[in-house]
């Protein structure tokens, strides 16, 4: 399981304040803590309130990079903001994200190739997020067709089925779990899948319980990556246990006490 | 999900002592607490140390029945012990269990029909528990063939793939999860599945974490019932959340605070 730490996001007041005051220590600590807790990459998002997203993205990437060598997942709706980040983010970077509009996909795939990055593509278009499994699958097909057409390697692609909050879209979640296995049959090699895990529990009580329960089910269904909170120790313990049950990690009595 | 409470089992010292001293209050309290926590049925097992299993089974069933109207799952290796229990256990009783030996199955199915009970059949034979998914599937086929041959309704059948402890059989668990979906295609209507959940964590640290993680994965894979501890509140919360994600229970913000 590829864990993408979600905590460096200007949506959080503490991070927004650190970006405003150029408080590098706070950002570096968030990066270090997530890596130490088991993150394989870090999402970097300047947040909705940034007055100058390009400047803030460059500052965040520079600040994280000054303390840590870990792949970064550059998260913004504007390609120009992502591109400035890609110029300095180094190897293993991830573009987060493009929707399934062929025009946008072609541009994002070209940018990913230019910077040797991988790309998260969402199964949604300008009209929004589909309600059902079939329409999400159609959009995944569009993503894969565009990749084939532009010579973009499926191995550099992550498909994100777009998790919606359970309190607004409960009936969709089962379809998303089913979609994870549908996608295994859509191409060879199969595209890898990623979810923005915390979306599922937005607006809910018991957020952590919902997050970790969905993650365990999704891992059983073949999910390869999640943007999530690696500092949630119960979540990480559930993930490790799920991987152990699936025989992807070796069982050991002291598995939890020693950390990971 | 059909929850079969596991706590009335002479394997536990407290229950063994209650059986020895005919302490009906302890047994009735265990029955009442499990039902209140969400158990749909109760497993009844005199335990390995019983000097007179028939007498102890009859006492347990009579004692539970005197305080509570809930289906009982009569758990013993000896058919005679189960039959004496069935005579007084009332509607919805479950025989736990028969192995997949056709001779034993025929006898157990005849007994189940006689008492209008359902039957848990294990995918193992006199030679023991199979190591792999394929062999378990073959035994499930034997169970279904024997049911067809004797006119035993698949709707009265529970197939138990026999969970082994993770510390001795880690590689089997993934196959058992796969088997749950294999079984959906084996007959129409599909046989329902049940596991003895706590087996998976025998001898392990973090037993509850392992139990609830496996249960969530198995529910996502189509498991219909588990013999488990309904007093483990984290386990029950994980189960409810899993069913909510699968759209089998309606999401409600107060889902946990109100109990179930």
3D structure, described in words:
Two copies of one chain form a homodimer. The first copy, chain A, has 260 residues and is of the alpha/beta class. The longest helix of chain A is centred in the C-terminal third of the chain and has 19 residues, at 166-184. The radius of gyration of chain A is 18 Å and the shape is globular. Chain A has an eight-stranded parallel β-barrel, surrounded by six helices. Chain A starts with a strand and ends in a 15-residue tail after the last helix. In chain A, β4 (94-98), α5 and β5 (118-122) form a beta-alpha-beta unit. Chain A has nine helices and eight strands. Chain A binds chain B through residues 166-167, 170-171, 173-174, 177, 200, 204-206, 209-210, 213-214, 216-217, 219-221, 237-238, 241-242, 244-247, 250-251, 253-257, and chain B through 166-167, 170-171, 173-174, 177, 204-206, 209-210, 213-214, 216-217, 219-221, 237-238, 241-242, 244-247, 250-251, 253-257.
């Amino acid at each position: 399981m590829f864990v993408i730490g979600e905590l460096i996001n200007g949506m959080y007041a503490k991070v927004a304040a650190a970006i405003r005051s150029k408080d590098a220590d706070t950002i570096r600590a968030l990066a270090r803590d997530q890596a130490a807790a088991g993150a394989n990459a870090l999402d970097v998002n300047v947040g909705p309130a940034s007055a100058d997203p390009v400047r803030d993205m460059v500052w965040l990437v520079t600040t994280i990079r000054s303390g840590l060598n870990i792949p970064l997942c550059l998260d913004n709706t504007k390609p120009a903001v992502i591109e400035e980040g890609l110029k300095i983010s180094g190897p293993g970077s991830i573009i987060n994200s493009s929707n399934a509009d062929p025009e946008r996909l072609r541009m994002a795939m070209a940018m990913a190739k230019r910077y040797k990055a991988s790309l998260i593509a969402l199964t949604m278009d300008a009209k929004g997020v589909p309600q059902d499994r079939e329409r999400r699958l159609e959009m995944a097909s569009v993503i894969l067709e565009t990749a084939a057409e532009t010579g973009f390697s499926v191995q550099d692609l992550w498909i994100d089925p777009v998790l919606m909050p359970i309190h607004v879209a409960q009936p969709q979640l089962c379809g998303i779990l089913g979609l994870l296995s549908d996608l295994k049959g859509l191409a060879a090699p199969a595209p890898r899948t990623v979810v923005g895990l915390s979306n599922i529990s937005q607006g809910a009580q018991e957020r952590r319980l919902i997050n970790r329960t969905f993650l365990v089910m999704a891992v059983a269904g073949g999910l390869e990556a999640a943007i999530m909170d690696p500092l949630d120790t119960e979540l990480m313990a559930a993930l490790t246990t799920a991987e152990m049950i699936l025989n992807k990690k070796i069982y050991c009595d002291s598995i939890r006490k020693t950390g990971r």
